[in-house]
Design brief:
The structure is a single chain. Helix content is about 25%, strand content about 40%. The chain is α+β, with helices and mostly antiparallel strands. Strands 1, 2, 3, 4, 5, 6, 7 and 8 form an 8-stranded mixed sheet that branches. A hairpin with a 2-residue loop joins strand 1 and strand 2. The chain is globular. The protein starts with a strand and ends with a helix.
């Protein structure tokens, strides 16, 4: 039986671009890029997890807005549920506490960074959502 893990992902937009971060050398999927976030801990809500992870990873305080479409992935012995949330920074400056680099990407253009598979699906869904809501 696979281990099911729920992971929140922050969709932080500024000036029409979304924040992605590069995974550390020692992490699973080293050097790949992702939307920042992390694993849900026992007893916490999804929104609490999202806010906690962004504080722990980037030293920012956020308001967690609405949930976006979840993505389900199989990764070896893991079954992952990626749960994105639109978030807005309310205080703090982005400080990389666990990641190697950060970038702001326009998801309507080709993404130069190598995203983790699930994050690529989120980016594609987000691009389609943006086009639909503009049109």
């Amino acid at each position: 039986m696979k281990n099911h893990i729920r992971v929140t992902c922050g969709l932080i937009e500024q000036k029409g671009k979304f924040l992605i971060v590069q995974r550390a050398e020692t992490s699973r999927h080293a050097f790949k890029w992702e939307f920042p976030g992390g694993k849900l801990e026992f007893g916490e809500s999804l929104e609490e997890c999202m806010a906690r992870e962004l504080k722990e990873e980037l030293d920012i305080e956020v308001v967690v807005h609405k949930q976006f479409e979840s993505v389900f992935r199989e990764d070896g012995e893991l079954s992952l549920e990626l749960i994105p949330f639109f978030c807005a920074i309310v205080s703090g400056e982005i400080t990389l506490l666990e990641h190697l680099d950060s970038a702001w990407i326009d998801i309507q253009k080709p993404i130069e960074q190598s995203l983790c598979a699930g994050d690529l699906v989120i980016a594609q869904q987000l691009a389609a959502y943006q086009l639909k809501s503009r049109g």
